[in-house]
Specification:
The chain has 124 residues and is mostly helical. It contains six helices and no strands. It has one domain.
Length: 124
């Protein structure tokens, strides 16, 4: 009888064994120091110069092992615009649009505001 009870307990708990895992979920994006930089810029505006933030973001992009997160290229474009690098800002916005097609309408409006020109052929 005891043997049958053990078998019943093991059989009841066996399906749950697949649910228990010690693996950490794999991150979809390579955030690097992006979140901390955004937080710092909101809490202490001017604590990091746009040039330094650009350098940090460019360095991170060169070593990122996964896709950069949504808004990353748009933020970089804003920084480029702040320091007068309009062509780099436009290129960064095009990268945002390519990486996240669902942002096309928004990014296109940013490009129009940046340059006064349509972001793609055939737009009005």
């Amino acid at each position: 009888m005891r043997g049958l009870l053990k078998v019943a307990v093991v059989a009841a708990l066996a399906p749950l064994a697949g649910c228990a895992t010690s693996r950490q979920p794999v991150a979809l994006y390579d955030w690097g120091g992006y979140q901390a930089a955004i937080y710092a810029s909101l809490v202490k505006p001017g604590s990091v110069s746009p040039e330094q933030e650009i350098a940090d973001m460019e360095k991170h992009a060169s070593v990122a092992t996964r896709k950069l997160p949504p808004g990353w290229y748009a933020h970089l474009a804003m920084l480029y615009s702040e320091v007068g690098q309009g062509e780099k800002a436009r290129a960064a916005l095009m990268s945002e649009r390519a990486a996240f097609p669902e942002s096309t309408v928004f990014v296109d409006s940013l490009v129009r505001n940046l340059s006064g020109k349509p972001a793609a052929e055939g737009q009005k």
